[in-house]
Design goal:
Pfam families: DUF4147, MOFRL. This protein has 451 residues and is of the alpha/beta class. Helix content is 36%, strand content 15%. α3 links the parallel β1 and β2.
Length: 451
């Protein structure tokens, strides 16, 4: 979509690096294939509705928001009215292709902890859909990250409250569905409320999934999708993870005053949701690319959840079984998986440096620990948006000599795990995967190569 595209968004050659002699380059190429298959310009066209008799207003939020907006601008008829506002993460607006007129405003805000820019964008988006009629169309572009980017606190909550709650949720080990259940009920725009505000206009939501199970009500906390969750569930999650909210908000949750629009709500009738890219589709694209290179590929699941380090250890046990016993898969092979793991941030001693890293890096720490240097096994884990947590890397590599090189560099893996410092560990080894923003997001990508 750009005359200076991100290399991961560029077409991938049919001739991938040789997996026998260049295992690291081969794994990186599979990651490129997965990301390329989820680019909005490649996936959006079949789901784009026809222009309506009235206005078309484009709204949206997410890490892929800028690329999705450009795809709509490129595909929408030049003579059909089009306007709108989309919010994406800082640094995630792709370069604009020469000759492509901008008709959709794209603004930037903070992720994963919301900021004032995201609050202002949410207010403007909500205002932009006021007063629409039945002949108008609202085209909503949703991708992962939208929960933080589209923040509009419920009555009784300040932005500072939302920031604290969001930060505590991120560090608690809560799953994405749990986090988003809370976010929906503490918002004036999420959990179907934005769609209700668009009535009586028709709403078509185009979504890139970054959640296990591809549930559109979970992606970006489902601003245009009816919410089956309840205030009672949100309260239980807050209690489970020891997260405090102001008394007035707790009372509203207890009374049901903060309940979201439910399935069957008349204000959402006739709306449509189209999934334009999913984790499974990206894993399948990577598997096909591997098979075309003459090596078997196996997809474990696109819905893996749990503590990142533990998921890494489970993958290590599987890889060891293949490498040492030829079970359950024959070697050589590639093993692929996706989903969204979590990191529970450990308490640290007073004055100790805060660890750096995200889910993919912590998975790789667990993987390296579990593999224990077994020969002929390489691994890559990366976030498909190009950013692992809040650092500048997408993920990391693991090789048969990872532990040996770390020992030579006086890096103790257990110490880095204790501090949730995957970034520092793999940076010292030169094993970070750095891509920059990819302008899409189908969540975690993991690949193991067993020769």
């Amino acid at each position: 979509m750009s005359d200076t595209p991100n290399p991961l968004a560029a077409p991938v050659s049919a001739d991938l690096p040789d997996w026998r002699s260049q295992p690291r380059a081969f794994l990186q190429a599979l990651f490129r294939v997965a990301v390329h298959s989820a680019q909005p310009l490649h996936t959006l066209a079949p789901h784009l509705p026809a222009p309506p008799p009235g206005r078309t207003v484009v709204i949206g939020a997410g890490k892929a928001g800028g690329a999705m907006a450009q795809a709509v601008e490129a595909l929408w008829p030049a003579d059909a009215p089009l306007s709108g506002l989309v919010v994406t993460r800082y640094g995630h607006v792709p370069p604009r292709p020469a000759g492509l007129a901008q008709r959709i405003e794209v603004v930037e805000a903070a992720h994963p902890v919301p900021d004032a820019a995201g609050l202002q964008a949410a207010e403007r988006i909500l205002q932009s859909v006021q007063g629409l009629g039945p002949d108008d169309l609202v085209l909503c572009l949703i991708s992962g990250g939208g929960s933080a980017l589209l923040t509009l606190p419920a009555e009784g909550l300040s932005l500072a409250d939302k920031q604290r709650i969001n930060r505590q949720l991120l560090e608690s080990g809560a799953g994405i569905a749990e986090m988003n259940c809370v976010r929906k009920h503490l918002s004036r725009i999420k959990g179907g409320r934005l769609a209700a505000a668009c009535a009586p206009a028709r709403v078509v939501t185009l979504t890139i999934s970054d959640v296990p199970g591809d549930d559109p009500s979970v992606i970006a906390s489902g601003p245009t999708v009816a919410d089956p969750g309840t205030c009672e569930e949100a309260l239980r999650i807050l209690q489970r993870y020891g997260i405090e909210v102001p008394d007035s908000v707790r009372q509203q949750l207890q009374s049901g005053a903060l309940e979201t629009p439910k399935p069957g709500d008349a204000r959402l009738a006739g709306h449509a949701v189209h999934m334009i890219a999913t984790p499974q589709q990206s894993l399948q694209a990577a598997a096909r690319a591997a098979q075309a290179c003459g090596i078997d590929a196996h997809i474990l699941s696109d819905e893996m959840e749990g503590e990142s380090r533990e998921v890494g250890r489970v993958h290590a046990a599987l890889a060891r079984a293949v490498a040492l016993r030829g079970q359950p898969f024959a070697r050589p092979c590639v093993i692929l998986s996706g989903g969204e793991t979590t990191v529970t941030v450990r308490a640290r001693a007073e004055g100790a440096p805060r660890g750096r890293g995200g889910r993919a890096g912590e998975f790789c720490l667990g993987l390296a620990q579990g593999l224990q240097g077994v020969a002929d096994v390489w691994g890559l884990a990366a976030d498909t948006d190009g950013i692992d947590g809040v650092e500048d890397n997408a993920g990391a590599f693991v090789a048969p000599d990872t532990l040996a090189r770390a020992a030579a560099a006086q890096r103790a893996l257990a110490d880095h795990l204790d501090r949730n410092d995957a970034y520092g560990y793999f940076e010292a080894l030169g094993d970070l995967v750095v891509t920059g923003p990819t302008h899409t997001n189908v969540n975690d990508f993991r690949a193991l190569l067993i020769l």
